[in-house]
Design a protein that fits this description.
single chain; 92 residues; alpha+beta; two-stranded antiparallel ribbon; 2 helices; elongated
């Protein structure tokens, strides 16, 4: 699951880079105070923290259930990320 989380963070950064390179207007140049960029950076930071929590729980071998859901929007962009991760040992 940790590799999935790292892959997701990489894909978000790749999306950001692609949009900046292939758009007439850079993705974060839409608002004057940079609010969307700040929200995006916060989302990526929170996703990294989520990934770290999942990784630590996996390393300890503990049961866990973690959910991450964020949505950021401005007049031109909409991004929604939803990830659920869990591990449960079944007695058999």
């Amino acid at each position: 699951m940790t590799s999935f989380m790292h892959k997701l963070a990489e894909e978000l950064r790749a999306r950001e880079q692609y949009l900046e390179e292939h758009s007439e207007h850079a993705i974060f140049d839409n608002d004057e105070n940079g609010a969307y960029k700040q929200e995006y950076d916060k989302l990526v930071s929170e996703l990294k923290a989520f990934s770290d929590r999942v990784q630590k729980a996996q390393e300890k071998g503990e049961d866990f259930e973690e959910k991450f859901e964020r949505e950021i929007t401005d007049e031109n962009n909409h991004l929604k990320v939803k990830v659920e991760s869990w591990s449960k040992k079944f007695e058999g």
